[in-house]
Amino acid sequence: MKYKSVFDIIGPIMIGPSSSHTAGAARIGRMARNLFNREPKWAEISFYGSFAKTYKGHGTDVAIVGGLLDFDTFDERIIHALDLANEKEMKITFIEEDALTDHPNTARVRIGDDNGELELVGISIGGGKIEIIELNGFELKLSGHHPAILVVHEDRFGAIANVANILAKHQINIGHMDVSRKEKGKMALMTIEVDQNIEQAVLDEITALPNITKVTKIVD
Amino acid sequence: MFRNVAELVELAESQGKKISQIMIEQEMQVTGRTREQVIGMMDKNLEVMEKAIERGLNGVHSHSGLTGGDAVLLQEYIKKGNFLSGEIILDAVSKAVATNEVNAAMGTICATPTAGSAGVVPGTLFAVKNKINPTREQMIDFLFVSGAFGFVVANNASISGAAGGCQAEVGSAAGMAAAAIVEIAGGTPSQSAEAMAITLKNMLGLVCDPVAGLVEVPCVKRNAMGAANAMIAADMALAGITSRIPCDEVIDAMYKIGLSMPVGLRETAQGGLAATPTGRELEAKIFGISLDVKKK
């Protein structure tokens, strides 16, 4: 079941006008920023399907940039996000794509600065709930039915075992795990679906491990 | 964890509990939060809803100028006393409209289940409040009942206009509200399910065709009718009327209708009211596009 909490249905508290096109978009932008770990200097945002056709009317552009500025769905600064980004000299490009995607509300977000880049694909599935389906070219095989974390790490021996050990220590059972990398010894990604909710303290413990770059809870 | 309406009703009736209690208990179990925390969070949502209605009833207008001020007109009309339908229904309608007018103006609202359909649940709640005089706790329970039915729809069908049309948004919201009205008025869990089924049956097929892609026309007035629909279906269920098609099958029908709906009628502003001559003219005016260019 993709919707697990009553507050997925009654909520979120948000700035209008659309939970999927405004709140969901803000959450996709904020997830990108969170995974990037800092405010980007530039962003290239591609909209597909209903997002491409109606983003101006729904304030999807404003909201996704608001997310990049780390604003939550109810933050009234979202309304002025484009101006605020401009003041910070963040360079934003929007692209309306014609290509058909599996989900009608899809956005591809590329962000970066002098030190790096990040690219993710997010879908907004309704009522403000989102799923990240691709990160830096890695397809994320998340069911959305269980809590999940993403671990960006260096491709070194022991990295996976260390993460699994910490989860085991806290009696958190792994239901599904996916490991992918682009090149041997470079950046790699663990996608881990678990049966129990993971506390921030556990995430901090994983982050402190050697060869771990970033740990993010991607599904609650 | 309940997966459908039949299981939800069975859980409640076998334990002699209200639907709201079942939802609260499941939330505690899934999230590990205490009862106080869960109720406190819902109380916050209720506060946001109340403020949005208040703001809308004071008069608010969207940036496009397409919507605003109708909640005020309706309240003034009610005060004159010459209305034809009923005071609570019109009050619910005006409060639903008030919420969606605030939403259209990029104000703060609580999505129930979505922003475009955020007026129906609070609109009916704050209208029924004047008749029933519920406690704050009962009002919070109203939102848990709505949430329980919305939870089933979201997991078995869809609550997204882009995926399932307006039936999935205002349709779901109206069904959720009808079920909650039944509980707050003292009805049984199965009567709540009947009210949801009756409402949703009358929302099936409703397309999502927002003019200029804005959540304004026809969204605000669809919330108005969603609220009216919910009130009447709740009264029908409380009168003992049942739906020949069980609630879960109605939800499944909604899901399948959504799958077969053309893309132009699923929140793309390409069909329906969005594609009428006036719809197109408004779109051109709002976004400053010349109509000739648009037609190429």
UniProtKB/TrEMBL annotation, chain A:
<protein>
    <recommendedName>
        <fullName>L-serine deaminase</fullName>
    </recommendedName>
</protein>
<dbReference type="Pfam" id="PF03315">
    <property type="entry name" value="SDH_beta"/>
</dbReference>
<dbReference type="InterPro" id="IPR002912">
    <property type="entry name" value="ACT_dom"/>
</dbReference>
<feature type="domain" description="ACT">
    <location>
        <begin position="148"/>
        <end position="220"/>
    </location>
</feature>
<dbReference type="InterPro" id="IPR051318">
    <property type="entry name" value="Fe-S_L-Ser"/>
</dbReference>
<keyword id="KW-0312">Gluconeogenesis</keyword>
<keyword id="KW-0004">4Fe-4S</keyword>
<keyword id="KW-0479">Metal-binding</keyword>
<keyword id="KW-0411">Iron-sulfur</keyword>
<dbReference type="Pfam" id="PF01842">
    <property type="entry name" value="ACT"/>
</dbReference>
<comment type="pathway">
    <text>Carbohydrate biosynthesis; gluconeogenesis.</text>
</comment>
<keyword id="KW-0408">Iron</keyword>
<dbReference type="InterPro" id="IPR005131">
    <property type="entry name" value="Ser_deHydtase_bsu"/>
</dbReference>
<keyword id="KW-0456">Lyase</keyword>
<dbReference type="InterPro" id="IPR004643">
    <property type="entry name" value="Fe-S_L-Ser_bsu"/>
</dbReference>
<dbReference type="InterPro" id="IPR029009">
    <property type="entry name" value="ASB_dom_sf"/>
</dbReference>
<dbReference type="InterPro" id="IPR045865">
    <property type="entry name" value="ACT-like_dom_sf"/>
</dbReference>
<dbReference type="GO" id="GO:0003941">
    <property type="term" value="F:L-serine ammonia-lyase activity"/>
</dbReference>
<comment type="similarity">
    <text>Belongs to the iron-sulfur dependent L-serine dehydratase family.</text>
</comment>
Automatic annotation (TrEMBL), chain B:
<keyword id="KW-0456">Lyase</keyword>
<feature type="domain" description="Serine dehydratase-like alpha subunit">
    <location>
        <begin position="15"/>
        <end position="274"/>
    </location>
</feature>
<dbReference type="InterPro" id="IPR004642">
    <property type="entry name" value="Ser_deHydtase_asu"/>
</dbReference>
<comment type="similarity">
    <text>Belongs to the iron-sulfur dependent L-serine dehydratase family.</text>
</comment>
<comment type="pathway">
    <text>Carbohydrate biosynthesis; gluconeogenesis.</text>
</comment>
<dbReference type="InterPro" id="IPR005130">
    <property type="entry name" value="Ser_deHydtase-like_asu"/>
</dbReference>
<keyword id="KW-0004">4Fe-4S</keyword>
<keyword id="KW-0408">Iron</keyword>
<dbReference type="Pfam" id="PF03313">
    <property type="entry name" value="SDH_alpha"/>
</dbReference>
<protein>
    <recommendedName>
        <fullName>L-serine dehydratase</fullName>
        <ecNumber>4.3.1.17</ecNumber>
    </recommendedName>
</protein>
<keyword id="KW-0312">Gluconeogenesis</keyword>
<dbReference type="GO" id="GO:0003941">
    <property type="term" value="F:L-serine ammonia-lyase activity"/>
</dbReference>
<keyword id="KW-0411">Iron-sulfur</keyword>
<keyword id="KW-0479">Metal-binding</keyword>
<dbReference type="InterPro" id="IPR051318">
    <property type="entry name" value="Fe-S_L-Ser"/>
</dbReference>
